[in-house]
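Hey,
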Amino acid sequence: MNSPVTETRAIDRRLKRCAVFKIDLKGRFVYIDDLTEDILHCPRENLFGRDIKGFLTEDSHSTLRTIFQRCRHYETFFEAVELNFVNAQGEGQPYQAVISLNFIAGNPANYQVVLLPLVRIPAVSTDADLFAAVRENISDSIAATVANIDWKGLTASLLKHPAILQNGIYEFENNRLRLLGASSVEYSYKIDFGDIALSREEFETSRAAGENVKCTLVSIGEQEGPPLADLWYSLVCRGEKWGILRIITRGDYQRLDVELRNLARYLGNALYSFAI
């Protein structure tokens, strides 16, 4: 069990001071704390009586004026809004501002503004989001194609997903898998993509397999990290298996399986007329 002193120190580490200043009803500084001085890069003696307009972007100043105009006097309110401040050196910085109206003897006297650093939470892209972006990019490429498709550019689109290290598109042709196009990121261990010769039996068996997935784990040595997954997805259109989508990835490839299957189904139909 933690001691009261230990718990107090832990709480203190989580606390963060906020900058505070006050402006009168005309927008002039009447109180400035030391953190506000630091934010605005201006000593408080040079701030007293100055209009806050000089330290806000035009849009933020308009927002602030709108808040002032709509507030109801003789009633306490709190408004939270993002404001973009510009310091004395002309440098901009956004803050979350919490604004409230103060009273003296029951009459509105000034506005108190508390500034909190603005924390941007990055959007998390799911595998579904990333593959949707890949499909959209491929759709645009196909829509812009008049005659011959750019297979190299198309496979490069698949590299937008960070888990895909290499990929290639093959078609079945004369007892072989003919490489139509391939792309790769720069990494230490690269698998050589090229045409793949098949025996007559292998050729017929592979084409008759329909929609299936072949996975081979490629060991690259303990020093290089986990093994690579060499994944082969069938490209099928109207029941005819015409090619292979080959993907090289690393790590937990199984979590990508559903999206890769969907991608292969999409490509099988979308690219059939260009490959055959």
